[in-house]
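Hi support team,

I've been running sequence recovery on a batch of backbones for a student project. Most finish fine, but this one hangs at about 90% for roughly twenty minutes before it completes. I'm not sure whether the input is malformed or the queue is just slow. I've pasted the structure tokens below so you can try to reproduce it. Let me know if you need the job ID as well.

Thanks,
M.K.
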């Protein structure tokens, strides 16, 4: 296999509603190409956990399943993208989520990245999933508070109900995966994020992938998209 961890892949943007598998597929890309995964949900949860000013503001909004205002997002995303590990590329998971964020990202890349290095525009992959599948994925999602391992009680249950296979900890439900919050998150996706797909589709940069298939098949297709995108020398 070619050394996939030595070349630039540029930004990879994964689009799709909550539960479409963005986190899972991001991890596969990270392992193959050796680039970081940048999840804005994780960045925000880190701020919430540390109790920063931004975290305090974001916590209430996230608990309602709504989107954190764009202006608050730009600062944390810009800071993260300027870090040294992002030079060969990165996977954006959960950003951009509004058309304004997509426009901001293009302007940021033009100004701060393309001026200094070879132009490698984002590859934008949209994960398509059926609504019923989404609900099962989201309501079934559990994680281990000790080791971080992810489960799904419908599709990838632990060996013993609600306990981690690795360390036996009681599995937890993410605050925003609670049923009452999920419908709000999906509604926010419908109204806002669809416009992000429209934004990239209008520029012919959107590649749609059917994510209602076994994980490995979806991953293989995503690798194919990234590899052919990068043949141009980025
Ligand atoms: P996620 O882990 O990507 O599902 O994000 C969890 C929550 O963080 C979302 O429901 C939003 O409240 C917030 N969030 C994450 N990314 C963004 C973003 N790009 N813009 C606005 N809010 C975001």
């Amino acid at each position: 296999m070619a050394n996939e961890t030595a070349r630039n892949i540029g930004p990879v943007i994964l689009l799709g509603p909550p539960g479409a598998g963005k986190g899972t597929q991001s991890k596969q890309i990270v392992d193959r190409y050796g680039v970081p995964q940048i999840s804005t949900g994780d960045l925000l949860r880190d701020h919430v956990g540390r109790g920063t000013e931004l975290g305090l503001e974001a916590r209430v909004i996230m608990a309602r399943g709504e989107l954190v205002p764009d202006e608050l997002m730009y600062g944390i995303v810009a800071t993260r993208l300027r870090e040294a590990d992002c030079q060969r590329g990165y996977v954006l998971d959960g950003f951009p989520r509004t058309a304004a964020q997509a426009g901001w990202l293009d302007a940021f890349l033009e100004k701060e990245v393309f001026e200094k290095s070879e132009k490698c525009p984002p590859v934008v992959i949209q994960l398509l999933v059926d609504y019923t599948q989404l609900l099962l994925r989201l309501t079934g999602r559990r994680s281990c508070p000790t080791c971080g391992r992810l489960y799904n009680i419908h599709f990838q249950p632990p060996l013993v109900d609600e306990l981690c296979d690795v360390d036996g900890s009681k599995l937890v439900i993410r605050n925003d995966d609670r049923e009452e919050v999920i419908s709000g998150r999906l509604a926010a996706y419908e109204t806002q994020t669809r416009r992000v797909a429209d934004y990239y589709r209008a520029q012919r940069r959107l590649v749609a992938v059917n994510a209602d298939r076994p994980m490995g098949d979806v991953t293989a297709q995503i690798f194919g998209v990234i590899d052919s995108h990068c043949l141009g020398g980025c």
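--
Follow-up from support: It reproduced on our side and the slowdown came from queue contention, not your input. The two ends are 19 Å apart (CA to CA). No action needed from you.
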